[in-house]
Amino acid sequence: xxxxxxxxxxxxxxxxxxxxxxxxxxxxxxxxxxxxxxxxxxxxxxxxxxxxxxxxxxxxxxxxxxxxxxxxxxxxxxxxxxxxxxxxxxxxxxxxxxxxxxxxxxxxxxxxxxxxxxxxxxxxx
Length: 125
Description:
Residues 33-52 are annotated as: Disordered. This protein has one helix spanning 4-48, and strands at 62-66, 80-90, 94-99, 108-112, 116-118. It is an alpha+beta fold.
């Protein structure tokens, strides 16, 4: 027999089940978030283990850019393009550069400090 007390008891039980389910979901999410953070920190430490900080360049410094495209016919070409002059310093160790010689490579480009090195030649005097 169903009466009002049975319905109220059923509603209370269902509400308790819902709240327990929500709490368990929140606990699972919290645990997953902590585990992800732990793995990310481990990966960050491993990645940065042998990395050196990038060189800082100033505007008008003369640099060479590492050739990043490899393919047939490039085996005996130089590994760096340039000379380039730094025209603008951007965030995250990124630079805008302009070609100052009649050499292979684009005239204006943007590159990170990871692919730059100082140019040592008649342009640096």
